[in-house]
Amino acid sequence: MKKPLWKTGLLGLCAWGLFGSGALLAQSDPTGQKPITQTYAFTNATVHASPGSEGQKATIVVKDGVIISVGSGVTIPAAAKVIAGDSLYIYPGFIDAASQAGITKPEDPERPSDFVSSNPPDEIAGITPWRSATDQFDISSSQVDDLRKAGFTMAHVLPDGGMIAGKGAIMVLGTKGSTNLIKANTALAASLNGSRGMYPGTTVGVMAKFRDVYKNTNLTQDRIATFTSNSGVTRPEINQTYSAMTEVVNGQIPVFFEVENDLEVRRAISLQKELGFKLVVYGLEQYDEVIDLLKSSGAGVILKLETPDDKAIKNQKDDVDEAIQDQYDRVKESYDRTIAQAGKLGEAGVAFAFSTIDAKPSDAMKSVRAMIEAGLSESAAMAALTTNAASMIGMNRIAGTVEQGKLANLVITTGPIFSEDSQIKHVVADGNIFDYEIKTKKKNGNGEATVEVAGTWDYTSETPAGSSGGKLTIEKDGDDYSGTITYDDPSGNGTATSPISDVSISGSQLSFSFEVSAGGMAISVSVSGEISGNSMDGSMNIAQFGSFPISATRNPNFISNN
């Protein structure tokens, strides 16, 4: 018996999911939110698999959050959702090597009645190495969304706190229904910030206290070893501070030291040399005064992904007196130093990664482009975003490059990643696809439309529920576009029509969205495709259900009025 039209394709998929008692969703998922397939194929895209590599046309197949094949002749599984990548560029997902996105500050503990400011309890003094960033992290935070929109798919999150805030954790920036934790207790977060109104309140005091905690951890380990191997020895007291510091003392994890100036860099390195722990410094805006010291120490370096606001430079006037001109020169000099330091670190052979702490993720690419213009090579910039960061946080086995067997963490763009007009179209994190709106690029250098999209199109979509189709009408009014799309009504009443919105053209890429009313619910659908003459091939993303192939042909009788 032939399946009714409303049970097929685009709206059949919606009806199946809404009215079929969860038939669309995997039965093994207790949340009921996992799609029936986690297999995707990004076809014929320009893939840059690692920093400095030449882009190659290839197809990437992803299954259950892992890259299972990359190449020009790979076999696409029958269950795969195909996403056309003909005009797209694919890079490894970015890694934030020191992040506080999604981190909430813990409540301050109450002071005991017998509080003594010269000898406060560790927790009140900001010494809490037992704390974990996993307890402070919220994947649903808008900060995480902002990070992901900027191309970041993994973050080394650090806890908020005092001089020894606690342990970091590696998080993949996937969906809210997953734990997203890859590894806990990855590094000790520390700083030279003193405690207010108690010891240690000064930088010198913090350094002395850090030595004290470190050396007492060593002594405690020796006492425990003596107790476990000899009889008649008094049992040593177990202290949670010293227990939590053991991984640092044993060289199992590094100390991520937040520094505010080059003097603090020197002090952190002096502690490293004296005590012997692994060191990574982050937070400094200008490293150029200590590049040689950093190189000789072997300390890891994380650069803030931020550049100074250049509005003050752009707004400088020509006819000013000498005092004002001197001020202009100092502002310009500071700006130039800041954006040039990444290139200087690269030239000195100091591998570095990036951090978004105290920076706007939305300005990430602008900042990187400024660094490239100031001397940083594009391959070094990509390494800082990917392979350097992966190595620094111990994730190079599973992240940092586009390779078979690595996590499906990808950034998919409309052009070469560092081009000013390139935009992020998709981000794949842990195998989950996040789609982002592409801003309209309506005119080229000659003032002509980049592609012609107006007209009536016959489209066909393919979903696990079958094939279906309808008509897409796009009209042009000046520089703006509007239109409608028809589809099979999920209620079984023939066809329905919906207005399209967010019509965007970038190069030869067309994207738009519309809503489907099914069972009293409004389901969002976004479409993107590559236009070639009177043909379009692309993908259709249906909220909660995933992405599916779509193709369209324009009525050949269409005549442009422009």
Quick take:
By secondary structure, the protein is an alpha+beta fold.
Layout of helices and strands, plus pairs?
Elements: H1 9-19, E1 39-47, E2 56-63, E3 66-71, E4 81-84, E5 89-92, E6 94-99, H2 142-149, E7 152-157, E8 164-172, E9 181-191, H3 203-229, H4 240-249, E10 255-258, H5 262-275, E11 279-282, H6 291-297, E12 300-304, H7 311-314, H8 322-347, E13 352-355, H9 364-373, H10 378-385, H11 387-392, E14 410-413, E15 424-429, E16 432-435, E17 455-463, E18 466-477, E19 480-488, E20 495-499, E21 501-506, E22 509-518, E23 521-532, E24 535-542, E25 546-554
Parallel strand pairs: 1-4, 1-5, 6-7, 9-10, 10-11, 11-12, 12-13
Antiparallel strand pairs: 1-2, 2-3, 5-14, 7-8, 8-9, 14-15, 15-16, 17-18, 17-25, 18-19, 19-20, 21-22, 22-23, 23-24, 24-25
Task: Describe this structure as you would to a colleague.
- There is one protein chain.
- The protein contains eleven helices and 25 strands.
- A hairpin with a 2-residue loop joins strand 15 and strand 16.
- The protein has helices at residues 9-19, 142-149, 203-229, 240-249, 262-275, 291-297, 311-314, 322-347, 364-373, 378-385, 387-392, and strands at 39-47, 56-63, 66-71, 81-84, 89-92, 94-99, 152-157, 164-172, 181-191, 255-258, 279-282, 300-304, 352-355, 410-413, 424-429, 432-435, 455-463, 466-477, 480-488, 495-499, 501-506, 509-518, 521-532, 535-542, 546-554.
- It is α+β, with helices and mostly antiparallel strands and 562 residues long.
- The strands form three sheets. It has a nine-stranded antiparallel beta sheet with strand order 20-19-18-17-25-24-23-22-21. Strands 1, 2, 3, 4, 5, 14, 15 and 16 form an eight-stranded mixed beta sheet that branches.
